[in-house]
Amino acid sequence: MFAFIFTNIALRSLLNAYTAPWDTKTILRSYRLALYLITFAGVVFRSELAILVGTLTLYLFATRRITIVGVIIPAGITGAVIGLTTTVSIDSFFWQSFPLWPEWTAFYFNTIQGHSADWGVSTWHFYFSSALPRLMLNPITYLLCIPSALLPAATRGRSLDLLIPLLAFVGLFSFLPHKEWRFIIYIIPGLTAVAAAGASWIWTRRGKSVVYASLSLILVASVLASFAASTTLLAISSLNYPGGEAITYLHNHVNTSRWDHPHVYFDNLACQTGVTRFLENHEGPQTIIDVLEAQNEVSKRRWTYDKTEDPDVLLDPMFWSKFQYVLAENPAKIIGKWGTVHVVYGFGGVKILKPGEDSGSPVEPLDGVEKSGGTSKNWTSEVARLWRTIEGLVRYRFLRGLWVEVWMEPKIRILENQALLSNG
């Protein structure tokens, strides 16, 4: 998302260049700014932007919009030098390793060494057949609006100026086996701009024929439908962060007063679903600034966190003996005597309920342990309660008993070290 900010500004600069054909200086300045911003964002934040800046540069050069000396070299060198100076100096300090260029490290590991495939492999057409349709939730944008922008001569040229380099970026990126929608999120504003041109073409002609009037009504209806769908998906996606809810619950509701210096371990699922530095209790030595402070000051702090993933270390019983709490997906993998003090539920799937079929509770108790959404007020329970209210109002009055069940299942257990309790 940090890189997304820079690519949005770059696309705006690109559009400014396309709309000012009479001012050569403004055009070249806009092109340089666009390529510079994407280069800088690629060096600092996301290495895949190297492909995007490459497709944009090649397209602009092939269409004789820019020159190597006038635009490409100044934008590339400036973006690379400023980006490298920024990221290497800052990241080397915080990671205490010099010189460190995080994006090169990630690119070398995932692309050159091929480890990205370890996270899963998708078909070559995944971005076009799955990711883009999901990112552009309203199907009218790519089924109607974008084609409508390409048909008229008035909008065709500017639309192609955006579509060709952006879709070329997606096509080249499709050669990598591991694919995620977040890798191509940068092109969505550009595609939306082209779709907006097509929608404008249709809307301004709604009074000329029945066809344009009908298409305009479809546009309005699709906007309302996509708004409802995106709002529903937003509520459902909020249920995908049990790790964040678990650490918040640990700090605010679990009785930790018996421990002077609680040590907490986060497993992989907890870290992937919301556990971040922002949610940690920063009374603990969690940053390089803490380490640089006097030792007696550090010893007064309370919380210490651990995210060790080394499988050999995780098999050592002594490793687990130092923790008071563990946030775990599977308690069976945690060595020692542990008790579950809280269970956090997360999104488990969607189920279609037929007429007469009872709706299961979105959050069910587990083995008598207090469940998330029980006595505490939290976002998960509020979403579940809202969904229940909507069900009561809509299911039997308008849908004749049909309903969509948002199913919840246990995700994260908060475990407490019973051996330490008995020793204490």
TrEMBL record:
Organism field: Bimuria novae-zelandiae CBS 107.79
Instruction: Please give, as recorded in its UniProt entry, the membrane topology of this protein.
Output: Multi-pass membrane protein
Localization per record: Endoplasmic reticulum membrane
InterPro entries according to UniProt: GPI_mannosylTrfase
Q: What does this protein do?
A: Mannosyltransferase that operates in the biosynthetic pathway of dolichol-linked oligosaccharides, the glycan precursors employed in protein asparagine (N)-glycosylation. The assembly of dolichol-linked oligosaccharides begins on the cytosolic side of the endoplasmic reticulum membrane and finishes in its lumen. The sequential addition of sugars to dolichol pyrophosphate produces dolichol-linked oligosaccharides containing fourteen sugars, including two GlcNAcs, nine mannoses and three glucoses.
Kindly report the protein's main subcellular placement as a broad class. endoplasmic reticulum
Report the EC number(s), separated by commas if there are several.
2.4.1.-
Q: What class of enzyme is it?
A: transferase
Q: What is this protein called?
A: Mannosyltransferase
Family affiliation: Belongs to the glycosyltransferase 22 family.
Known pathway: Protein modification; protein glycosylation
Keywords noted in UniProt: Endoplasmic reticulum, Glycosyltransferase, Membrane, Transferase, Transmembrane, Transmembrane helix
GO aspect biological process, one term: protein N-linked glycosylation
Q: Which GO terms describe its cellular component?
A: endoplasmic reticulum membrane
Gene Ontology molecular function: dol-P-Man:Man(7)GlcNAc(2)-PP-Dol alpha-1,6-mannosyltransferase activity
According to its UniProt record, what is one Pfam family this protein matches?
Glyco_transf_22
* Tagged with keyword Repeat: no
Which reaction is the catalytic activity of this chain?
Answer: an alpha-D-Man-(1->2)-alpha-D-Man-(1->2)-alpha-D-Man-(1->3)-[alpha-D-Man-(1->2)-alpha-D-Man-(1->3)-alpha-D-Man-(1->6)]-beta-D-Man-(1->4)-beta-D-GlcNAc-(1->4)-alpha-D-GlcNAc-diphospho-di-trans,poly-cis-dolichol + a di-trans,poly-cis-dolichyl beta-D-mannosyl phosphate = an alpha-D-Man-(1->2)-alpha-D-Man-(1->2)-alpha-D-Man-(1->3)-[alpha-D-Man-(1->2)-alpha-D-Man-(1->3)-[alpha-D-Man-(1->6)]-alpha-D-Man-(1->6)]-beta-D-Man-(1->4)-beta-D-GlcNAc-(1->4)-alpha-D-GlcNAc-diphospho-di-trans,poly-cis-dolichol + a di-trans,poly-cis-dolichyl phosphate + H(+)
The membrane spanning regions, by residue number, are 33-61, 68-90, 135-153, 160-177, 183-203, 210-236
